[in-house]
């Protein structure tokens, strides 16, 4: 049997990791795939003297890899939308299987890519696009295929999780930790995608499509970052028995699909609440299996390479098999995916943490609880903090923080009650609120 030839486009962090691990574990990979494979062609704009590129054709034009008739599988590791989209579509048109780690590409152009691949009879794999080294795509698409997925919730951006962990453990400010994360290489020079939730939204949309067999729908994912999370809320959440995590949540409800990324309070006793630093985790609830949790490194050269190479091994193993032996990109054919209505954020149901800054006068708490009660909102927990109990946490002197946790309610009803609370004379600032998930 011929050796299967792999072409890699982009030799940055992940590309270098893939080449290194493929060379180091070559015998084992060939045995697992049932036939020999090797990297035959790499597209890189710059020479990489630290890597072993003997016997590999090097091109500074990545399209030379895609158009190389000897290459069977194209591995796209350049990132971004263009020219990655054009490259992948060209590879498909040339009849080559594709492996990518590019969540932005899949979230935004996945529908077009998967449809083109199916029409051409080639496969597109993207395990590394979500949660780096954790095989969550395979788990959802194959390991849990018996289940109707009810919901999933994930910490799927390591940078954001690192920042929130440092804020909690060391009482630091968001901006300080972000600057450190950039120096340590955890955050990009432009951190917008990470801290504003865009990266997590890309990943959540992919997970939601797999979970609910629906086309990718990035436009309807509610996205809120962590840049507005205040240190006093991190501390108060801890006092109430919660941790603040930046969660991506997808849930099937009778009204439609919830798809949202935002800071979230989670009870501290949940396993996922204890996923700290740059680590990722995804909790998936299926109707048959119940809750399952997947944990591991969400980024890094070799953890990400682990997922990229697993995709390559799958494709090599099935290279002689008929196309219908391949698992399709979203687990089923593009023809059978169903467009579900995605709920607006006003329609979702959640519990809420709210912090109301008030003048230190008697009777204020009862006014607040009356407004909530008039809106049909039950209260689960209440905490009142004098400003001097929170020295250094930004509570102005002479003011009191009234902190409440509500029961589950429709967001539109909750935000309307918040407006009424803000209209009270004794309320000195806009109300801070953060959604709460029990993940029970
Ligand atoms: P990276 O270190 O920036 O590497 C990208 C490489 O692609 C660079 O070497 C760049 O070359 C090259 N490149 C970009 N455009 C090119 C072009 N037109 N022609 C030739 N080369 C080109 O990025 P990365 O961290 O490896 O990420 C790659 C992909 O993996 C992204 O989609 C990312 O989202 C995904 N991913 C990364 C991680 C991670 O831990 N890093 C984890 C999961 C998924 P130059 O150096 O010349 O610019």
Task: Count up the domains.
Answer: 3
CATH homologous superfamily assignment of the largest domain: NAD(P)-binding Rossmann-like Domain
Quaternary form: single chain
Average pLDDT confidence is 95
- First-residue to last-residue Cα separation: 51 Å
Bound molecules: NADP nicotinamide-adenine-dinucleotide phosphate
Helix content: 25-40%
Unreliable sequence segments:
none
Structural class determined from secondary elements = alpha/beta
Quick structural summary:
It is built from 14 helices and 17 strands.
Note down, in words, how this protein is organized:
- This protein has helices at 13-24, 26-33, 62-66, 84-93, 103-120, 136-143, 158-170, 174-184, 192-195, 198-212, 231-239, 301-317, 364-374, 411-422, and strands spanning 4-9, 37-43, 57-59, 73-76, 97-100, 124-125, 149-155, 222-223, 242-252, 257-267, 279-286, 290-297, 349-359, 379-386, 399-406, 409-410, 432-436.
- It is α/β, with parallel strands linked by helices and 440 residues long.
- The radius of gyration is 24 Å and the shape is elongated.
- The mean pLDDT is 95.
- The protein starts with a strand and ends with a strand.
- Strand 5, helix 5 and strand 6 form a beta-alpha-beta unit.
- The structure holds NADP nicotinamide-adenine-dinucleotide phosphate.
- NADP nicotinamide-adenine-dinucleotide phosphate is lined by residues 10-15, 43-46, 62, 77-79, 83, 101-103, 128, 132, 299-300, 304.
């Amino acid at each position: 049997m011929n050796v299967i030839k792999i072409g890699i486009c982009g030799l940055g962090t992940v590309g270098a990791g893939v080449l290194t691990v493929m060379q180091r574990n070559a015998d084992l990979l060939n045995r697992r795939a049932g036939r020999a494979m090797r990297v035959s062609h790499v597209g890189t704009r710059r020479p990489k003297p630290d890597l072993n590129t003997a016997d590999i054709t090097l091109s500074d034009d990545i399209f030379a890899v895609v158009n190389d008739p000897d290459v069977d599988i194209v591995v796209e590791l350049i990132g971004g939308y263009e020219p990655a989209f054009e490259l992948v579509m060209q590879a498909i048109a040339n009849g080559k299987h594709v492996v990518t780690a590019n969540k932005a590409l899949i979230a935004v152009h996945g529908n077009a890519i998967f449809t083109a691949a199916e029409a051409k009879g080639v496969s597109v794999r993207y395990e590394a696009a979500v949660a780096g080294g954790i095989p969550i795509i395979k788990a959802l698409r194959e390991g849990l295929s018996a289940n109707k997925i009810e919901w999933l919730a994930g910490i799927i951006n390591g940078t954001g999780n690192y920042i929130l962990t440092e804020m909690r453990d060391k009482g630091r400010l968001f901006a300080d930790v972000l600057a450190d994360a950039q120096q340590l290489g955890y955050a990009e020079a432009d951190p917008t995608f990470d801290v504003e939730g865009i990266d997590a939204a890309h990943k959540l949309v992919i997970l939601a499509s797999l979970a609910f067999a629906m086309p990718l729908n990035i436009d309807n994912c509610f996205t809120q970052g962590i840049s507005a999370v205040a240190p006093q809320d991190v501390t108060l959440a801890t006092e109430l028995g919660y941790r603040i995590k930046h969660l991506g949540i997808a849930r099937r409800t009778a009204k439609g699909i919830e798809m949202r990324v935002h800071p979230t309070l989670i009870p501290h006793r949940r396993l996922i609440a204890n996923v700290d630093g740059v680590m990722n985790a995804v909790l998936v609830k299926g109707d048959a299996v119940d809750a399952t949790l997947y944990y591991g490194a969400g980024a890094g050269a070799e953890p990400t390479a682990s997922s990229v190479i697993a995709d390559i091994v799958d494709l090599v193993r099935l290279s002689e098999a008929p196309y219908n032996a391949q698992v399709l990109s979203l687990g089923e054919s593009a023809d059978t995916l169903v467009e579900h209505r995605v709920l607006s954020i006003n329609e979702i149901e959640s519990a809420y943490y709210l912090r109301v800054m008030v003048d230190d006068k008697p009777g204020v708490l009862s006014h607040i609880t009356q407004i909530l009660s008039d809106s049909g909102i039950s209260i689960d927990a209440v905490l009142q903090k004098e400003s001097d109990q929170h020295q250094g946490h930004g509570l102005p002197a002479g003011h009191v923080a009234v902190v409440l946790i509500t029961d589950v309610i429709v967001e539109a009803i909750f935000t309307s009650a918040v407006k009424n609370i803000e209209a009270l004379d004794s309320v000195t600032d806009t109300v801070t609120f953060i959604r709460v998930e029990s993940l029970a």
